[in-house]
């Protein structure tokens, strides 16, 4: 879309006067998260480079003085950003103050002063939860239309209508594509996530197109990582029916970890490590590299546990603990005995969270694994106690295959004890 001036005539409302060319379109609306993502960039030769960079999903290398509030908002310094706009009375500055502090500016006066950008007042009010109804307008296009349609999609989703939300976001993508590929990519990613949650077949396609559109958007690393994670999770889930898809999830987990560090988005980072480890533990061991994958899986699981704690994320913590214990049991190592001892301890910690009354199957499986490891360590009495409880729970649940597996381990323990006794009687 060719750039156009905001208006060719002045708009006067109270003390606010809008001169021609106060803001140039397209604006990078919605490319970044609130509040930065809805701040308008004032027109001027010094702001053009920054506007172009932000439309490409990159933060400016050099912030012009007139965008000091934007720079502070990008750094998370909201109060300082408001202060930077305090002595400016032009409509763009007042609108930007409104985004940062909606109680400090009169919305009606602002709408009258903003010309074609007036609809953004209602977009911001909806985004901030100041109104339950999204804005509507038929006479807008480009990034303004994308912002309005995105708000409407959010409302449709909260109203329990994911199909309408996806359709609205698809229209928002069409509006955004001519002005900002990263904006279109973010909207595609949002639509893809809704498709995933609602079982829509268009999920993978939208997420893949989203990542293509966001390529090179270095200021959106966390958003890109989240989309890679979403796609990895979908492919991982589909691999349950189509195992050949399992390997296709790996590059997306890797991309997530390349884009962000733990401090950027701890839960996304931890989920990527946990997901990558799960894939590696699930892949068949057909090559020597399979053993290396098991080692990488253990490292990733330990990384995930630096974020997932028992108190704050009990479900994720238990799942990762269990996978780590299992990986230690089956990973070849010069320190195999030490790994087995650690696995026993990890299983014991998990048992404290697997209640017999509320999760009998989960408890039984952990007990069976722990009993098996204890048997390998030669701690037969403790192993039998764990295995007896596991067998009882499996019998109660009618899981005959698991009962037979536990009995097999108990029979092996009995055989080992007979052999040990025979050796003691025979002597040297």
Features of this protein?
two-stranded antiparallel ribbon, disordered N terminus, single chain, 428 residues, mainly alpha, 2% strand
Q: Care to give the gist of this entry?
A:
By secondary structure, this protein is mostly helical. Helix content is 63%, strand content 2%.
Can you walk through the features of this model?
This protein has 19 helices and four strands. The model is unreliable at 1-20 (pLDDT under 50). A two-stranded antiparallel sheet has the order 1-4. Helix 10 runs antiparallel to helix 11 and helix 11 runs parallel beside helix 13. With 428 residues, the chain is an all-alpha fold. Strand 2 and strand 3 (16-18) form a beta hairpin.
**Helix residue percentage:** 55-70%
Low-confidence stretches: 1-20
Radius of gyration of CA atoms, rounded to a whole number? 29 Å
DSSP helix count?
A: 19
Count of strand segments: 4
Biggest sheet character = 2 strands, antiparallel
What is the H/E string?
EEEEHHHHHHHHHHHHHHHHHHH
Span of the ends, CA to CA: 92 Å
